[in-house]
Design goal:
CATH topology of the largest domain in chain B: MetI-like fold
Low-confidence stretches of chain B: none
Structural class of chain A: mainly alpha
Radius of gyration of chain A: 25 Å
CATH superfamily of chain A: MetI-like
Order of helices and strands of chain A: HHHHHHHHHHHHHHH
Mean pLDDT of chain A: 89
Number of helices of chain A: 15
Distance between the termini of chain B: 48 Å
CATH class of chain A: Mainly Alpha
Low-confidence stretches of chain A: none
CATH architecture of the largest domain in chain B: Orthogonal Bundle
Oligomer: heterodimer
CATH architecture of chain A: Orthogonal Bundle
Number of domains of chain A: 1
Radius of gyration of chain B: 23 Å
Number of domains of chain B: 2
Number of strands of chain A: 0
Shape of chain A: globular
Shape of chain B: globular
């Protein structure tokens, strides 16, 4: 405190009026601040510039047809990404169905029940889970989960189920951290009132805390969904990447992200544009999910 | 008492969820560290990868590539994010611009890395080819800057917001200009928080693969300049898994990555605790 004070005084003694300088600095800082907006603008302009003309030319058959033959030249019907979009949705919804209950329960535990000693381990564990690179998750899944599925259920092992398992783990940190904040944000009075009226701890959690935090919890699940649908490397390694509608959860599947990553390396011409068009589709999904998450977290719960 | 017993099941499940999360982390880390740590040696860290993942070689050039790519990303994203956070917190009130920028950062953080990779490929690799050299460290680093930016912007803003208003008022009251009080009072106070944001952004850059796959080129030689193609550690793991029969080098590389990520988690945790304590002391 004293040090910062002295430093301020010293700087003051050196200074004259620097109005022009101050203005200039403010301008530079403003440019920094709007760089995020500029970044999004750039991304949209470039990705859409390749994807949208292709979408316009291929029309609705791009989204509804099931034949994906990128090696062929541009011919109507060979650019059907329906199985790929469906694959993305199947993989995402399954991962959320597994990950959301676990993540929400963990968040309630973290916010309400965990003794300080457990919390001191759990909080950094969640950030470490968020920090593990997705290729490492994919690596683990490919060498542990995939052989396990192959041994238990037959087939190749690279499958819908493998994606569900690894993605459900990867979305945990998002769901846990956003849900924990939501539960913590419930006013103390609600909880105290419930306990004072003789409700037990679990009754309070179930009938007061979770309903009061429901909008934030919903937002966390939607954000987790966005994380799952956008995840690339882990899915790429364990999905099997065959462009067919999976017949069971042990069958291989392909997703928008994995197909883009897999085929960008050698795609040219119309094929490359088709991959950008898939990027546009993915982008639209993400924007819808982001909008829904915002709506959910804005909704007020009143008693 | 009956009520209490009925509660044991749901309360047990909540405990189970908390413990399960820790166990999942430990299982994944233990598996990779158990197989990877024995492979890490001075030789492994300082020798270049062999042809097609031959055993006995190292990962030197991939470490260099990761450091270079991350460095470029931070060099671009750090001033933008810290400057942006200063503007948002010190020069604006809660208004439309601030809301729009915060929303933009949130959207940017939510864009999947493969889409940012598509953009990076088109913009840096193809469009700016004469400047970036096509697939290169520079293209990959600049692409990653788009991912680091929103993370460190948000955390820097939080850190600045936590600085007590009295400090600014005291400084301004002594006649310091706005910029003077920011550089001499606000920034030094918020420094641990700002550094935390940058380190977390660094972690994101170190662990990123999908965007790198489309922009870095994947060449295994030691880079001579930023315009050379490169293969950072994450991409090397992917290439080993998909192209080579011998996957042992992938364990060693993954173990190095995990150690880096754990170090980042502990350092940021420690810094944030210190920051919170420091602010409480003011």
């Amino acid at each position: 405190m004293a040090v910062t004070f002295n430093r301020a005084v010293r700087t003051l003694q050196r200074s004259g009026t620097r109005d022009v300088g101050e203005r200039f600095i403010q301008l530079i800082l403003l440019v920094c601040a709007i760089s995020s907006i500029f970044a999004i603008f750039l991304i949209i302009v470039f990705v859409f510039s390749q994807g949208v003309p292709f979408l316009a030319e291929a029309g609705s058959s791009f989204l509804t047809k099931s034949v994906w033959l990128p090696a062929d030249s541009f011919a109507a019907g060979t650019w059907g990404v329906f199985p790929i979009i469906l694959g993305s949705l199947i993989v995402t919804l399954g991962a959320v169905a597994i990950g959301a209950p676990l993540g929400i329960a963990c968040a309630v535990f973290l916010a309400e029940i965990a003794p300080p000693a457990v919390r001191r381990v759990l909080v950094p564990s969640v950030s470490a889970l968020a920090g593990v690179p997705s290729v490492v998750y994919g690596f683990f899944a490919l060498l542990v989960i995939v052989p396990w599925i192959r041994g238990q259920f037959g087939g190749f092992g690279t499958s819908v189920l493998a994606c569900w398992i690894i993605l459900s783990v990867m979305i945990l940190p998002t769901i846990i951290s956003v849900s924990t904040d939501a539960v913590r944000a419930v006013p103390r009075e609600y909880k105290e009132g419930s306990l004072a009226m003789g409700a037990t701890r679990w009754q309070t959690i179930r009938s007061v805390l979770i309903p009061a935090a429901s909008s934030g919890i919903m937002a966390s699940v939607i954000l987790g969904m966005g994380r799952a649908i956008g995840e690339t490397m882990a899915v790429l390694l364990v999905a099997g990447n065959s462009v067919t509608i999976p017949s069971s959860i042990f069958a291989p599947v392909s997703t928008l992200t994995a197909t883009i990553a897999l085929e960008m390396g050698y795609a040219t011409g119309a094929h490359q544009q088709a991959l950008f068009a898939m990027g546009v589709v993915l982008f639209v999904f993400i924007m819808i999910l982001t909008g829904l998450a915002n709506l959910a977290s804005r909704r007020r719960v009143t008693f | 008492m009956a009520a209490k017993r009925r509660e044991m099941v749901p309360m047990g499940l909540l405990w189970g969820a908390g413990i399960a999360t820790i166990v999942i982390l430990i299982v994944i880390l233990a598996y990779i560290l158990a197989k990877g740590l024995p492979l890490i040696s001075w030789h492994f860290l300082t020798t270049n990868p062999g042809v097609r993942g031959q055993t006995g070689a190292g990962i030197y050039s991939t470490i260099v590539a990761t450091v270079a790519v991350t460095g470029v990303a931070l060099l671009v994203a750090a001033p933008l994010s810290v400057g942006g956070a200063i503007y948002l917190n010190e020069y604006t009130r809660e208004n439309l611009l601030r809301k729009v920028i915060r929303q933009a950062a949130e959207v940017l953080a939510g864009i999947p890395s493969i889409i940012i990779g598509l953009f990076g490929f088109l913009f840096f690799v193809i469009y700016l080819l004469p400047y970036t050299g096509g697939w290169s460290v520079l293209s990959a680093g600049l692409t990653l800057a788009f991912m680091v930016l929103p993370i460190s912007l948000r955390i820097s803003e939080e850190a600045l917001k936590a600085v007590p208003g009295e400090l600014r008022e005291g400084s301004l009251g002594l006649g310091a200009t706005k910029w003077q009080s920011i550089t001499t009072v606000v920034l030094p106070t918020a420094l641990p928080g700002i550094i935390t944001g940058l380190i977390l952004g660094m972690g994101r850059a170190i662990g990123e693969t999908a965007a790198i796959l489309l922009t870095a080129g994947g060449a295994l030689g030691v880079i001579q300049s930023l315009r050379d193609p490169a293969c950072p550690m994450t991409l090397y793991i992917y290439n080993i898994l998909t192209e080579y029969n011998d996957t042992s080098a992938a364990y060693g590389t993954a173990a190095v990555l995990i150690i880096a990520i754990l170090a980042i988690t502990f350092i940021t945790d420690w810094l944030m605790n210190r920051y919170t304590k420091k602010l409480q002391g003011l």
